[in-house]
């Protein structure tokens, strides 16, 4: 047992160091003299040194061994349609043409769920992510399938819940009134900033923008987790603070969880580099905390917490089903050819149980427990240094916010 490679040095003072242990997610201060004693001692002598039991509890001596990722939840990402009422310039950026959804292909999914639960007794919950396109263009199908899923889960005494990822413009009163009955526990709204960017980036208009903001206010009054994902590029990064300020002035800001995401697009002139993105993201986080007194601290610092897996492609008990009834392990593959169809239940179950571990050795990276190697399909080692720097700075902000 040696000092863990997953102790990230957040800050160094004259007589102390601030450490984020990425296995436990704990941030703590340790005297330099004590750290040096551990560093220069044999592990057999650790028990005689100060704070040994406390540091043991903080995973100060632990190493992280990646193992087969299982879990007790079956996760289904379900894209009912690739159609959308908006036209985000970065959507389907690889040039994949949008397909017309097949109205019959999803009839097999309840049978698939029933078959999977019948042979996998270790599953205790089912989680569905309604995805798109714009999933609310198939609102009636969401309601119909949800009813089937709930009945099946009740039959097997499993917990069922769902989330929906939407642009928010079709969240009308009728659908909002049914959120509880559909077991939708969270909603993610995706935007690009204020009105101007809604028009520029999404080909939206003032009427749809009004619909979005009205829906946002209505769902925040429900007992539901509302997440606002703000996609950023070079053109809209400056408008993000303006929109967040608007939300604060309307009394909505502290009722939603804010996340900032990088737009990846073939329009490289618009795309932020990872170095630029992390710099801007930290600036927005500071603005939320210092200028807008944002109170959802756990969400702001969520990236400092250890996770089970970065994405579905590395998880067992996970599947992505597209609008053609084709099965994948990755959301990026929606709309691409797959030989696996929901009509072939055996093949689908095999795909659910499949997991693809990364073929690179990230385990000893200091931030691996909270990063899990990121996206296996778009990983670029050259960006890792910026990710580590970002996590270090984020931990520093959290520590300063706590003291």
Report on this model:
It is a single chain. The strands form two sheets. An eight-stranded mixed sheet has the order 9-8-7-6-5-4-10-11. It has a three-stranded antiparallel sheet with strand order 1-2-3. About 35% of the residues lie in helices and about 15% in strands. The protein has about 400 residues and is of the alpha/beta class. A hairpin with a 5-residue loop joins strand 10 and strand 11.
Radius of gyration: 23 Å
* Helix/strand class: alpha/beta
- Helix share of residues? 25-40%
Spatial gap, N to C terminus: 31 Å
Write down the secondary-structure element order: EEEHHEHEHEHEHHEHEHHEEHHH
Which strand-content bin applies to the residues?
15-25%
Mean pLDDT: 90
* Main beta sheet: 8 strands, mixed
Question: Ranges with pLDDT <50 over ≥5 residues?
Answer: none
- Overall 3D form: globular
Helical stretch count? 13
Count of strand segments: 11
Structural descriptors:
single chain, 403 residues, alpha/beta, eight-stranded mixed sheet, three-stranded antiparallel sheet, 11 strands, 34% helix, 17% strand
Quick structural summary:
With 403 residues, this protein is of the alpha/beta class.
How is this fold's topology laid out?
Layout: E1 7-12, E2 16-21, E3 26-31, H1 32-39, H2 52-57, E4 73-79, H3 109-119, E5 125-131, H4 139-155, E6 159-166, H5 173-176, E7 184-191, H6 195-202, H7 206-220, E8 225-232, H8 237-249, E9 257-262, H9 274-291, H10 297-300, E10 318-321, E11 327-328, H11 345-353, H12 368-371, H13 384-402
Parallel strand pairs: 4-5, 4-10, 5-6, 6-7, 7-8, 8-9
Antiparallel strand pairs: 1-2, 2-3, 10-11
Helix pairs in contact: 3-4, 8-9, 9-13
């Amino acid at each position: 047992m040696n000092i863990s490679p997953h102790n990230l040095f957040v800050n160094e003072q004259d007589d102390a160091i601030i450490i984020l242990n990425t296995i436990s997610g704990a941030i703590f201060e340790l005297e330099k003299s004590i750290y040096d004693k551990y560093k220069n001692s044999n592990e057999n002598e650790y028990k005689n040194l100060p704070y040994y039991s406390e540091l043991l509890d903080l995973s100060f001596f632990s190493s992280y061994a990646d193992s087969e990722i299982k879990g007790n939840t079956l996760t289904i990402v379900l894209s009912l349609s690739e159609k959308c009422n908006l036209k985000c310039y970065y959507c389907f950026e690889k040039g994949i043409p949008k397909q017309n959804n097949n109205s019959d292909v999803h009839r097999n999914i309840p049978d698939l769920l029933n078959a999977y639960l019948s042979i996998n007794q270790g599953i205790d919950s089912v989680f569905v992510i309604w995805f798109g396109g714009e999933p609310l263009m198939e609102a009636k199908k969401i309601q119909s399938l949800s009813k089937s899923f709930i009945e099946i889960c009740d039959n097997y005494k499993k917990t069922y819940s769902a989330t929906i990822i939407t642009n928010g413009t079709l969240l009308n009163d009728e659908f909002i009134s049914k959120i509880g009955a559909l077991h939708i526990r969270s909603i993610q709204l995706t935007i690009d900033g204020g009105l101007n960017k809604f028009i520029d980036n999404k080909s939206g208009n003032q009427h749809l923008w009004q619909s979005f903001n009205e829906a946002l206010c209505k769902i925040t009054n429900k007992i539901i987790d509302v997440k606002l994902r703000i996609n950023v590029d070079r053109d809209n990064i400056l408008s993000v603070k303006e929109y967040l300020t608007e939300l604060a002035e309307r009394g909505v800001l502290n009722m939603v969880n804010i996340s900032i995401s990088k737009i990846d697009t073939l329009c490289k002139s618009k795309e932020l580099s990872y170095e630029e993105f992390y710099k801007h993201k930290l600036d927005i986080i500071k603005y939320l905390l210092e200028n807008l007194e944002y109170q959802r601290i756990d969400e702001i610092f969520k990236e400092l917490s250890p996770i089970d897996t970065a994405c579905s492609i590395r998880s067992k008990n996970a599947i992505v089903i597209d609008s053609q009834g084709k099965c994948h392990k990755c959301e990026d593959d929606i709309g691409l050819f797959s030989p696996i169809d929901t009509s072939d239940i055996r093949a689908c179950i095999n795909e659910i149980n499949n997991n693809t571990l990364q073929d690179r050795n990230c385990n000893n990276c200091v931030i691996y427990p909270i990063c899990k190697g990121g996206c296996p399909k778009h990983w670029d080692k050259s960006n890792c240094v910026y990710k580590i720097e970002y996590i270090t700075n984020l931990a520093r902000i959290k520590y300063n916010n706590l003291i």
